[in-house]
Write a structure and sequence with these properties.
Bound molecules: (2S)-amino(hydroxy)ethanoic acid, manganese (II) ion
Helix content: 25-40%
Number of strands: 17
Structural class: alpha+beta
Number of helices: 14
Distance between the termini: 30 Å
CATH superfamily of the largest domain: Zn peptidases
CATH architecture of the largest domain: 3-Layer(aba) Sandwich
């Protein structure tokens, strides 16, 4: 396999199943590894799946993905997931919260080993964030079947719905509902930018929203969840490792800042007479950067909406969404409080009314040590060297579920660290290393 980066573009550099290059990233020292790489490379599964999935929900203008929850693009990727499951003879089901499951073995037997990730995206997201985990899960299962693995526990591949929260503003809706971290009542209140309630969107997509809610029985039948994900950062690129294991997820959240001013004519209103919310918003964005820098945290205003949004009208309302994250809860609290204080101070001086609403929050996640260390033992056997353990500022379904079941994460190197962008990429060798590693982990956990 070539070590060139796989782009998301369907006609891009997604290579065919070529010969396995010597010394590829997965440490092809052992015959087993070489055979594995050849079988994954030769296996049409990864490339075929990648090629089929790549065009779904991809915007031809930006090259990014727009797979938002319960839209047509989401339906297409869900149909793809179901086809992959059924083409492998796996038991397919959708749970009460719209998450998809592909089962090998009896879903009711208990102590299942689950892998998978999500297929939805942020606006103009990359091809790997989510899909690499789902595609690699199917490819890893194909690999285990090629190895003739004998399963002693049920295994499932999951596609958790609405992980990015791009449409309704709350991250990880599918896994939060299942874990009981999002009540059905609160979910009924979620609306998209057009005011469409989440339940109506689910209904239009053919799902019954009246069933949504916690699913403790399902979670009780899962012994471990391992999510493979492209790294969203450069730690593995900098350390020169193809794979990593997650130690923790930073606490992080999303806050909506509503700046209410006074609509007026842009050309005739004296500056002294204005109550322009845009200026207070702008000051708040700069305050966010200052507070984050001071605290060694991150803070981003990446989404803004303006009413009435006219070139020649002073806005009546500016809405800005803050995403902030820090390694430590108290630091995050300090950063957000500092940003809000700066916003309120400016709003008061400008005659602007400010309302701040926390729309999404995920406390710090420390992945279970026993499962984390088991992954380390299994993977270092393949790579012949210890696999780095690293924290992340990115949220994941594995983080949400870690409150209910043992979960772990396997990161695949991202050569540029870029994510939530059409430029997101991963080298094919590293994707193969991830598949083989995930196959080893599933074999170690679920097979004799
Ligand atoms: O925002 C996140 O960290 C994740 O991509 N949902
Ligand atoms: Mn993401
Ligand atoms: Mn993701």
């Amino acid at each position: 396999m070539t070590s060139e980066a796989i782009s998301g573009a369907p006609g891009g550099t997604t290579p065919g199943a070529g010969a396995v290059a010597a010394g590829t990233a997965a440490g092809a020292g052992s015959r087993h590894a070489r055979q594995g790489e050849e079988s994954v490379a030769r296996g049409a599964s990864f490339h075929e799946m990648w090629r089929e999935l790549a065009p779904l929900g991809r915007d031809s203008g930006s090259g990014g993905y727009r797979r938002y929850a319960w839209t047509g693009a989401d339906a297409d990727s869900r149909a793809w997931f179901r086809a992959q499951a059924e083409s492998r003879g796996l038991g397919y089901e959708v749970d009460r919260n719209g998450n998809q499951w592909a089962w090998l073995g009896d879903p009711l037997a208990g102590d299942a080993v689950v892998t998978g990730s999500h297929l939805d995206s942020v606006p103009d997201g990359g091809a790997f964030d989510g899909p690499l985990g789902v595609v690699s899960s199917f490819a890893a299962l194909d690999e285990l079947r090629r190895r003739g693995a004998r399963f002693t526990r049920p295994v499932a591949i999951a596609n958790f719905g609405d992980e990015e929260g791009a449409r309704f503003g709350l991250a990880c809706v599918g896994s939060r509902l299942t874990a009981g971290q999002l009540t059905a009542d609160r979910a009924q209140e979620l609306r998209d930018a057009d005011g469409v309630p989440l339940p109506r969107a689910m209904e239009s997509a053919g799902y019954d929203p009246s069933a949504i809610g916690p699913d403790p029985e399902r979670l009780a039948r899962i012994g471990a969840f391992v999510e493979l994900h492209v790294e969203q950062g450069r730690a593995l690129d900098l350390s020169g490792d193809p794979l990593g294991i997650a130690s923790a997820i930073w606490p992080h959240g999303r806050w909506r800042f509503d700046f209410h001013g006074e609509a007026n004519h842009a050309g005739t209103t004296r500056l002294a007479d204005r109550r322009d919310p845009m200026l207070t918003y702008a000051e708040t964005v700069l305050a966010a950067r200052r507070e984050a820098e001071l605290a060694g945290a991150v803070a981003t205003f990446g989404k803004v909406s303006v009413e009435p949004n006219g070139v020649n009208a002073i806005p009546s309302l500016v809405r800005g969404w803050l995403d902030s994250r820090a390694a430590d809860q108290s630091v995050l609290d300090t950063v957000v409080a500092g940003i809000e204080a700066a916003a309120r101070d400016r709003a008061e001086r400008a005659g602007v009314d400010l309302r701040v609403v926390r729309e999404s929050f995920t406390p710090v996640v420390e992945f279970e040590h026993a499962l984390r260390d088991e992954l380390g033992r299994i993977l270092s056997h393949r790579t012949g060297a210890p696999v780095p353990v690293l924290g992340t500022g990115a949220g994941h379904d594995a983080g949400i579920l870690s409150g209910s079941i043992p979960t772990a994460m396997l990161f695949v190197r991202n050569p540029t660290g870029v994510s939530h962008s059409p430029a997101e990429s991963a080298a094919e060798d590293d994707c193969v290393a991830g598949i083989l590693a995930l196959a080893d982990v599933l074999e170690g956990l679920a097979c004799t």
